[in-house]
Design goal:
- The chain is an alpha+beta fold.
- The protein folds into three domains: 246 residues, Immunoglobulin-like (Sandwich); 266 residues, Neutral Protease Domain 2 (Neutral Protease, domain 2, Orthogonal Bundle), CATH 1.10.390.10; 131 residues, no CATH class.
- Helix content is 24%, strand content 28%.
- Strands 6-9-2-1-15-18-17 form a seven-stranded mixed beta sheet, with no helix packed on it. Strands 20-21-22-24-23 form a five-stranded mixed beta sheet.
- The chain is elongated and about 120 Å long.
- 44% of the residues are buried.
- The structure holds zinc ion (ZN).
Length: 720
């Protein structure tokens, strides 16, 4: 025991001393771009400086040309979207509103042309009609530590808004709008065996992956238009070209792996400037809870102020305060638990209702939230839906932004981790009455309900496009991972869990962790091997379900018939004569006892059985089962008639077990997982057994109704 404690102590020490990763900007992008609203086109130039941070040389560069996903009906993205109804969250792309990116010029710093050597690649599916990934051969290899400067000219046709990018009327959201380098990963990064480029095609069910970089971006829009973008604004000039008057706005950002921006006429969108003021906006109770569970002082958890810029349709201005309040909740919560937000500004965009497809999306220091028209009507209007979307998208500043997992390959590591943190934050908001205008709401119910009615179990850890269906992708990546992490929190305990997640968030900040990195960090930080959990939770298609299969109890009958005693056969007295302990039919519960199985140790010593003696004890048989494939352990609570309550642990390695007990009292209730530790359990109605059918049982039978009601609200949300 002591040795274990010492070992755990030393591991914790190592974890605590390991410094948080320093940001390394692998590339710098200097981009000048002009938007022509009449044609929905962008024309721009890039000067990219890229450093080879791997330990081997490379003689090629891989590029993402994401907008080519919307170039035809045969691209991988459009094929995966499927069928005639090519819709993603309500949007659709139809001729003539295609979108594309074309590289017009590509040279080295010395003028060497690279464009002639550009070839399209389809590493994921070989689809010859997909043009979202390109490879360029270099005249000479870039050695480890070597750098290269590239000059790029490009033109982009924006689609009508789809998959968070494009135009709707005069509103523009520019995401994935420029030629962008893939990631040259070293051996060992996310568990890969050899160094190489990671550059996936754009899929219908995938987001992105890129290296950290520094950015200087200047955008030109018509005069009178507002602009919001990643980073902070560094310049704002007026200019003219020919007859058109322009506004030229510059932005700078460091240590982020993408750059997005938005623009619209000032008559359509309003800009609201605000602050996150930690002295005012960090709830005292949250700080107290964090200092206690993380075992850190309030000074160590101090958060910096952050500037907030909200771009919102003038017609929605009444919702601005709710969105800003939500962003502040997110900043306080994620900052306390996962480390401070290291950037000076957060830009929030609420797209107009005509551009729902642009809502609910994350880019570094730039998020889109959104108010759907359904939110004006019950039941959605009673729920903190704007709050949840805003908190969720802000949360991606951590799970995606700072902890830069590969969204193509492990969508669950950003969406699922973030869904967990977001639901935890929303729960705290409701618990602490920080949004008194909203009705009670439990964000976890929707996540848990998502497992109902699934036809096949789902393995979580898959590439985003490798699930059976897009429904499976969403389920595995969002709620399934969230409830599995909540289960892990219950099993590990809130303190160890919080500290392990903090260690993970700090150690992998500004880096690219894979699943094994999370698993190893978590086990190390808790000083316990959790591989049994991770293997079942994320690497296999398990379902979680424990239950009470059967309970039987009856009084031991008095001895009847013959027995060998004192060297001769004796016959007991017939029942009814002085046999106070005989069972009567009315006292018998349940059916006949099932076949013999490994018995638990009786908790109550059997009383001496004598004819005509004291009342015979109850023989109690509890049969527990595991319909789900996920193995335990799981806690079981036994409540006896007199009110005595005891807890036991069933390891739940086998499919079932039978506990036989003798007791002077009858069992009143059996509850499997009484604390609700197994949040990932899909079917809880069988976790309870009660001798008297109580009213609670009725509620439990219709629990799904309540969840269905809440999920109706969730379906109206744009999520990413
Ligand atoms: Zn998300």
């Amino acid at each position: 025991m002591k040795r274990t404690v010492a070992l755990v102590g030393s591991i914790m020490m190592v974890a605590a001393l390991a410094p948080a990763a320093e940001p390394v900007d692998v590339a710098s992008y200097d981009i000048q771009v002009r938007l022509t609203p009449e044609t929905h086109r962008l024309r721009g130039t890039e000067v990219i400086r890229w450093t080879n941070t791997a330990s081997v040389a490379t003689d090629e560069l891989w590029w993402h040309l994401y907008l080519n996903a919307f170039a035809s009906n045969r691209t991988t993205f459009m094929r995966e979207l499927g069928g005639a109804r090519r819709k993603l969250r309500g949007g659709k792309v139809e001729n003539p509103h295609w979108g594309w990116t074309r590289i017009a010029k590509l040279t080295l710093d010395d003028g060497t042309d690279l464009l002639a050597g550009l070839a399209f690649e389809r590493p994921d599916d070989g689809n010859p009609d997909d043009f979202t990934v390109a490879r360029v051969k270099l005249p000479r290899a870039i050695p480890p530590g070597g750098a290269i400067i590239l000059h790029v000219g490009f033109e982009a046709q924006l689609p009508r808004v789809i998959a968070r990018t494009g135009w709707a009327g005069d509103f523009y959201l520019m995401g994935q709008w420029f030629p962008k380098l893939g990631v040259f990963e070293d051996a060992g990064v996310r568990g890969r065996k050899t160094a190489g480029w990671n550059c996936h095609q754009f899929h219908a069910s995938s987001e992105f992956y890129a290296d950290f970089a520094s950015w200087d971006v200047t955008v030109e829009v018509p005069e009178g238009w507002v602009v919001g973008a990643t980073g902070v604004q560094t310049a704002d000039e007026k200019g003219a070209e020919g007859t058109s008057r322009l506004r030229r706005v510059s932005f700078h950002a460091d240590h982020v792996h993408d750059f997005a921006w938005t623009t619209a006429p000032g008559t359509l969108m309003t800009v609201v400037e605000a602050e996150f003021d930690p002295g005012r906006d960090v709830p005292k109770r949250w700080l107290d809870q964090a200092t206690k569970l993380l075992e850190r002082s309030a000074a160590e958890l101090e958060l910096p102020p952050v500037h907030l810029r909200l771009l919102i349709p003038t017609s929605q201005a009444g919702l601005a305060e709710r969105m800003l309040r939500s962003a502040r909740f997110g900043m306080a919560w994620y900052g306390l638990w996962y480390g401070l937000y290291p950037y000076p500004q957060l830009t929030i965009v609420s797209p107009p209702v005509t551009a729902t497809e642009a809502g609910g999306m994350e880019y570094p220091t730039f998020i889109t939230t959104g108010a759907s028209r359904w939110m004006l009507w019950p039941p959605s209007s009673w729920m903190p839906l704007i709050e949840m979307v805003t908190i969720h998208e802000f949360g991606h500043q951590y799970f995606y932004g700072l902890i830069a997992t590969n969204e193509f390959e492990q969508a669950w590591m950003d969406e699922g981790f973030n869904s967990f943190a977001e639901a935890s934050c929303s729960t705290a908001v409701m618990r602490d009455h920080l949004a008194p205008d909203l009705k009670a709401y439990d964000p976890w119910l929707g996540d848990r309900m998502s497992s109902l009615g699934r036809r096949l179990p789902v393995k979580v850890d898959r590439f985003a496009w490798a699930y059976r269906s897009r429904g499976d992708y969403s389920y595995a990546s969002y709620p399934r991972t969230a409830v599995l992490l909540k289960t892990l929190q219950g099993l590990a305990g809130p303190g160890p869990f919080a500290r392990a997640m903090r260690t993970y968030a700090e150690r992998w900040r500004f880096r690219h962790p894979g699943p094994k990195d999370f698993f190893a960090t978590f086990s190390e930080a808790t000083g316990k091997d959790w591989s049994w959990f991770f293997r079942q939770a994320f690497e296999s298609d398990t379902t979680v379900d424990f239950g009470v299969m059967h309970v039987a109890q009856h009084r031991e009958k008095a001895y009847q018939g013959f027995r060998w005693e004192d060297g001769r056969w004796k016959e007991s007295e017939p029942a009814g004569k002085g046999d106070a302990g005989a069972a009567t039919a009315g006292e018998k519960d349940g059916g006949p006892a099932p076949a013999a199985a490994p018995a638990a140790t009786p908790t109550v010593a059997p009383e001496e059985k004598k004819n005509g003696g004291a009342e015979e004890p109850w023989e109690v048989t509890v049969q527990l089962g595991r319909p789900g494939s996920f193995r335990g352990p799981v806690e079981v609570e036994l409540v006896w008639d007199g009110g005595k309550t005891e807890r036991r642990t069933w390891d739940a390695q086998d499919r079932w077990t039978i506990w036989r007990m003798e007791s002077p009292e009858r069992l009143d209730r059996v509850i499997v997982d009484p604390d609700g530790i197994w949040a990932a359990e899909s079917h809880r109605a069988d976790n309870y057994w009660s001798r008297k059918d109580d009213t609670g049982a009725v509620t439990r039978r219709i629990w799904w109704l309540k969840e269905l009601f809440q999920a109706t609200g969730l379906m109206t949300l744009p999520w990413s």
